[in-house]
């Protein structure tokens, strides 16, 4: 009976956390970004004393953000990626993804961005379910990921739909653990450990797989949509997920993906002036530091309520007591 009670509590814990009223994060500033050629801002990371961005429409550059003024300017750093590896995705899914890339631009569909303490940058390609490493003084290279990563993800209900593959990447400072976030239907978290010449799943790749729907905020119509992850960060020993539909940031255990605490940014994001004509939300990029969070918006060149069409980055203050508050 005791084991049954413990199991039920583990199953119910995420639902209980989600049901609690969330504290609202306070918006400190917002910054339009100029100079991103493809327009879409799909990832952010703080690397080597600067804030960097990636666009899912550009396969050949990162952007260093000049943050000295209210309007930020993106300075391109070009790179040449080698041909991506062929991961064990079904032929039909790979072809549909290829066609989508030809139509909208961005064959690699670079989504997440992360850095380790040595200055290596890591970009996740949604289209190819692969991770590109950009060393500070060497040519870009694709990480040698195991085929079991994709097979385990698909067996757990993830990576089944076009434009619903890997959406976020996070790496620990030592560059020895790598986490990936599957976007939706199912959303989930996976982890890999570095070996001398490759990356391996230790005790399985999948930490978390979640299906189902939740209601969009009332300001976006309130219709049920698939739960999602739109970015992933490792900070202060924890994982932080950006949840686009729910307009929230959640702190999770790095070894299980179990949610511990969430904070909402819906009140600030969904004012009439800041709202976009989208039923899902547009928050796609996340950086966490001790003082707050940077949230980047992939607005797809759509105008929001006040007419602003440029990509934007919001700065939120850290919650009272800090991100580690267990209350």
UniProtKB/TrEMBL annotation:
<dbReference type="Pfam" id="PF13449">
    <property type="entry name" value="Phytase-like"/>
</dbReference>
<keyword id="KW-0732">Signal</keyword>
<protein>
    <submittedName>
        <fullName>DNA topoisomerase IV subunit B</fullName>
    </submittedName>
</protein>
<feature type="domain" description="Phytase-like">
    <location>
        <begin position="39"/>
        <end position="185"/>
    </location>
</feature>
<keyword id="KW-0413">Isomerase</keyword>
<dbReference type="GO" id="GO:0016853">
    <property type="term" value="F:isomerase activity"/>
</dbReference>
<dbReference type="InterPro" id="IPR027372">
    <property type="entry name" value="Phytase-like_dom"/>
</dbReference>
<feature type="signal peptide">
    <location>
        <begin position="1"/>
        <end position="19"/>
    </location>
</feature>
């Amino acid at each position: 009976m005791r084991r049954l009670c413990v199991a039920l509590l583990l199953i119910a814990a995420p639902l209980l956390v989600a049901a609690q009223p969330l504290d609202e994060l306070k918006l400190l500033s917002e910054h339009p970004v100029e100079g991103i050629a493809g327009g879409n801002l799909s990832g952010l990371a703080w690397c080597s004393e600067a804030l960097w961005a990636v666009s899912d429409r550009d396969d050949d550059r990162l952007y260093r953000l000049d943050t000295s003024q209210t309007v930020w300017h993106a300075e391109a750093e070009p790179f040449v990626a080698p041909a991506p590896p062929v991961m064990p995705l079904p032929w039909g899914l790979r072809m549909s993804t290829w066609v989508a890339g030809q139509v909208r631009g961005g064959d690699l569909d670079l989504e997440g961005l992360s850095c380790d303490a040595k200055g290596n940058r890591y970009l996740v390609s949604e289209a190819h379910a692969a991770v590109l490493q950009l060393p500070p003084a060497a040519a870009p290279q694709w990480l040698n990921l195991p085929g079991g990563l994709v097979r385990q993800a698909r067996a757990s209900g993830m990576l089944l739909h076009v434009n619903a593959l890997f959406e976020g990447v996070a790496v620990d400072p030592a560059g020895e653990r790598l986490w990936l976030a599957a976007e939706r239907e199912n959303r989930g978290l996976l982890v890999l450990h570095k070996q001398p010449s490759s990356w391996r799943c230790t005790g399985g790749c999948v930490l978390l797989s979640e299906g189902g729907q939740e209601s969009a905020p009332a300001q976006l119509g309130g219709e049920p949509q698939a739960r999602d992850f739109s970015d992933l960060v490792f900070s202060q020993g924890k994982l932080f997920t950006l949840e686009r539909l729910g307009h929230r940031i959640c702190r999770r255990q790095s070894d299980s993906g179990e949610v511990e605490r969430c904070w909402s940014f819906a009140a600030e994001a969904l004012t009439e002036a800041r709202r976009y004509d989208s039923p899902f939300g547009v928050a796609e990029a996340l950086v966490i530091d001790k003082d707050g969070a940077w949230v980047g918006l992939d607005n797809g060149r759509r105008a929001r309520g006040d007419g602003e069409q440029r990509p934007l980055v919001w700065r939120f203050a850290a919650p009272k007591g800090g991100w580690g508050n267990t209350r």
